[in-house]
Give the backbone structure.
Amino acid sequence: MSAASKEKTHHTEKEAPRLSGSLIDELDGLCDENIFGCYQCGTCAAGCPFVEEMDLTPDEVLRFVILDKKEVLNSETIWLCSSCFACAERCPRDINITVVMEALRQIILRKSIDETKIENLTEDEKRKIPQIAFVSLFRKNIG
């Protein structure tokens, strides 16, 4: 297995947060998106500005949720989503994936598992990271 492959699958190595029900049940209380309408066309991933950095593409995240694979909660993808809505605008099924990503982040935050620490960013990272990513990060940290 190549280093890139190992890096892409690291989300399954950590134990997923314990949930009382299924991911769909958890999401139902946080968003009204019908993710079962997704037919995995990949249009969302094609328009995502951060897809190259993600360990799962946005359509793969939806598939993991549909299959109740709780290890999706360990994915870097849900934290890398900048909430730019490019995926939602392009989706032929009108699924707002951005809302789903936010709901997945809320599931984790409600379990007190927050991987994002703004104060740990170096000055170089602060200069290189797009401003929209900071806006999203601040939204995540203040609710």
